[in-house]
Amino acid sequence: MRKRYILGLLLVSCRLFFAGSPLFAQEWEDGEGWEIYSFDLHSTGDQTIIISLGLIFPTVFVYADGAGRSHNINPVGGAGSISFNYHLGRHAFLGGEIGGSFNATLAENNLFIWNFGMRGGWQFLLGRFEFPVGLAFGMSPQSYIGNGYLGIYLRGSASAFFRFNPEWSFGLTGEWTWYPQRPTVEGVRRPDMDADGNFLGLTLAARYHF
After folding, report:
1. I need a surface site. Which of 11, 51, 93, 140 has the fewest CB within 10 A?
2. Which CATH number do you get for residue 158?
3. How many domains, in total, are found in the chain?
4. Cα dist. 141→45, 83, 100, 156 in Å?
5. Each residue of 42-100: pLDDT tens digit?
6. Which residue pairs, CB below 8 angstroms and at least 24 apart, start in 136-141?
């Protein structure tokens, strides 16, 4: 009698489990089960690839004489990048980026800038909204009417993303990039030609999470 009672409980439990599984799967497909897994969206080892496209605006350039000149009347340029993040936990991340931009000057020539750098940052979470702030540093080859220059860059960024589903999030990024130039002529340092360029970037971005 006792064995029959235990066997009956097992059969009922199995029936409830397998009957409930399709229902749970349907709820997840309908988006109702998202919150159940929200705590597990960011953990050590998670990775993201970010594709960004947008606009770049020259702002203030500082020259060797210490004078700052506004260049925000220049035509707007374009910018794009591909970057990679490795998450150290729910908030911190490290990674790298490759990007480029172009901008027309007042003389109607084009300035081309490439960026190859490392990046890191911290991500604030609010439900399905994510707000990463980051800092990037690296090498920056630059070209202007046949003249080349290999410099560095430092970039601060702040973004707002909406997590559309477990694999994709979409958002907007604001960036401020500093490009210092310290030229040499025939191997001789020329401080009188020093310049510091500052650019503001606004880009739309898509992130793939895996």
Report:
1. 11
2. 2.40.160.20
3. 2
4. 32, 18, 10, 19
5. 778 889 999 999 999 988 888 877 666 666 556 789 999 999 999 998 899 999 999 99
6. 136/97, 138/97, 139/115, 140/113, 140/114, 140/115, 140/116, 140/179, 141/113, 141/114
Q: Which residue in 134, 140, 88 sits closest to 117, CA to CA?
A: 140
Mean pLDDT of 135-145: 93
For 3-59, the three-class secondary structure string (H helix, E strand, C coil) is HHHHHHHHHHHHHHHHHHHHHHHHHHHCCCCHHHHHHHCCCCCCEEEEEEEEEEEEE
Check: CB of residue 70 under 8 Å from CB of residue 63.
no
Domain that holds residue 100: 41-209
Do 99 and 156 share a domain, yes or no? yes
Same domain, 55 and 85: yes
Q: Is the same domain home to 10 and 113?
A: no
Q: Tens digit of pLDDT for each residue in 113-133?
A: 999 999 999 999 998 899 999
Question: Are 27 and 85 contained in the same domain?
Answer: no
